[in-house]
């Protein structure tokens, strides 16, 4: 530590935003003109979506047009719900004519994060991810100590004296909750201040809807299968669900079974891409799901996780099941000797 203290911190490059929130806002605004068509490029997750909405709001009346584009398909139902309920106008980056835009803004990402970002001539970067590359783009505001880009955006919006719509406030509020894992992860004082500011402006019922929505209608049937195949033994639940379109649904069923009182361990498995995926849940108190996952499945495939939550993946060929079908009993046999 002492060594780092003695090392002088180099001043940020000239193009990095400096000064008070008001001065940074002015530097940002000065960069745009009435004739600009602005493309905001994001890797769509709640923080990126909320920050893109904030950019759009900051530039309203100041440029000709703002569009938001993302390369990734939005699959998580929480994020789909956020986009649908807030009616966030989005375009797929692949369908956008880049030449129609005079300025490109990137929020909650840096150009080296995705190959398709590297090809873009990015003018503005506002982000909170670690700085691995020093950027020479015209306007850069990267604050790696912040828990969310949304917290940076709240500073800009407040400096601009903008009255937030409920939709924008709700998006920013949700973004900070997600990126800080409800403040269980490291967060900056600025995240707390932004959160406090948004608390009364956001619609928290609507935000709960984003948080809660993690299932597709087509996935509900995996609950039926999971409950039908459920095996109970010694305060433990075992359930093999069979083929699933995504391992996410196994996580949701396992988390649901973890709601039941008196249950010490939950094991839910399924088959995805010729692999057996096993989800482990427990209370993490004098139990270690990560270690159990590694002990029981590590030799057959890959496994690991935290004290209370873990997962393992085993290629089916390593299970040597032959013609036999994998069942909840097979799952129990795989794990029971290692508990
Ligand atoms: Mn983020």
Describe this structure in words.
This protein is an alpha/beta fold and 339 residues long. The chain folds into two domains: 2-212, inorganic pyrophosphatase (n-terminal core), CATH 3.90.1640; 220-336, Diaminopimelate Epimerase, Chain A, domain 1. Helices cover 37% and strands 19% of the residues. The protein is built from 14 helices and twelve strands. The chain has helices at residues 2-6, 21-30, 46-59, 77-85, 115-118, 149-159, 166-179, 189-199, 204-212, 221-228, 248-257, 289-297, 316-319, 328-336, and strands at residues 37-41, 65-70, 91-92, 103-107, 124-127, 139-142, 231-233, 236-243, 265-272, 275-281, 302-305, 309-315. The chain has a six-stranded parallel sheet, with helices on one face. Helix 5 links the parallel strand 4 and strand 5 (124-127). Helix 6 runs antiparallel to helix 7 (166-179). The protein binds manganese (II) ion. Residues 47, 108, 128, 148-149, 179 line the site of manganese (II) ion.
Question: What is the topological layout?
Answer:
Elements (H helix, E strand, L loop, with lengths): L1 H5 L14 H10 L6 E5 L4 H14 L5 E6 L6 H9 L5 E2 L10 E5 L7 H4 L5 E4 L11 E4 L6 H11 L6 H14 L9 H11 L4 H9 L8 H8 L2 E3 L2 E8 L4 H10 L7 E8 L2 E7 L7 H9 L4 E4 L3 E7 H4 L8 H9 L3
Parallel strand pairs: 1-2, 1-4, 2-3, 4-5, 5-6, 8-9
Antiparallel strand pairs: 7-8, 9-10, 10-12, 11-12
Helix pairs in contact: 2-6, 3-6, 3-7, 4-9, 6-7, 6-8, 7-8, 7-9
The structure holds manganese (II) ion.
């Amino acid at each position: 530590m002492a060594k780092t203290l003695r090392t002088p911190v180099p001043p940020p490059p000239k193009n990095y935003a400096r000064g008070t929130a008001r001065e940074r806002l002015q530097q940002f605004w000065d960069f745009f003109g009435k004739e600009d068509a602005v493309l905001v490029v994001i890797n769509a997750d709640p923080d990126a979506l909320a920050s893109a909405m904030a950019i759009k709001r900051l530039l309203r009346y100041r440029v000709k047009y703002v569009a938001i584009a993302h390369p990734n398909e939005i699959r998580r139902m929480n994020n789909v719900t956020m986009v649908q309920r807030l009616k966030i106008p989005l375009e797929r980056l692949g369908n956008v004519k880049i030449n129609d835009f005079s300025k490109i803004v990137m929020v909650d990402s840096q150009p080296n994060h995705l190959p398709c970002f590297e090809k873009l001539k990015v003018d503005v970067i506002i982000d909170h991810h670690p700085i691995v590359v020093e950027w020479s783009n015209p306007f850069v505001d990267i604050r790696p100590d912040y828990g969310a880009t949304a917290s940076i955006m709240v500073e800009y919006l407040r400096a601009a004296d903008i009255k937030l719509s409920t939709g924008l406030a709700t998006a920013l509020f949700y973004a900070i909750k997600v990126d800080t894992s409800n403040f269980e992860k490291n967060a900056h004082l600025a995240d707390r201040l932004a959160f406090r500011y948004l608390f009364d402006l956001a619609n928290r019922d609507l935000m709960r809807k984003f948080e809660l929505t993690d299932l597709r209608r087509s996935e509900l049937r995996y609950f039926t299968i999971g409950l039908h195949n459920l095996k109970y033994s010694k305060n433990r639940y075992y359930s093999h669900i069979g083929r699933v379109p995504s391992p996410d649904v196994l996580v949701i069923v396992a988390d649901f079974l973890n709601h039941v009182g008196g249950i010490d361990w939950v094991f839910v498995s399924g088959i995805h891409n010729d692999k057996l995926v096993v989800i482990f849940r427990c209370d993490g108190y004098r139990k270690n799901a990560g270690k159990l996952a590694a002990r029981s499945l590590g030799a057959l495939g890959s496994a690991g996780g935290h004290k209370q939550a873990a997962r393992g993946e085993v290629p089916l060929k390593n299970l040597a099941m032959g013609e036999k079908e994998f069942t909840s009993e097979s799952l129990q046999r795989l794990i029971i000797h290692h508990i």
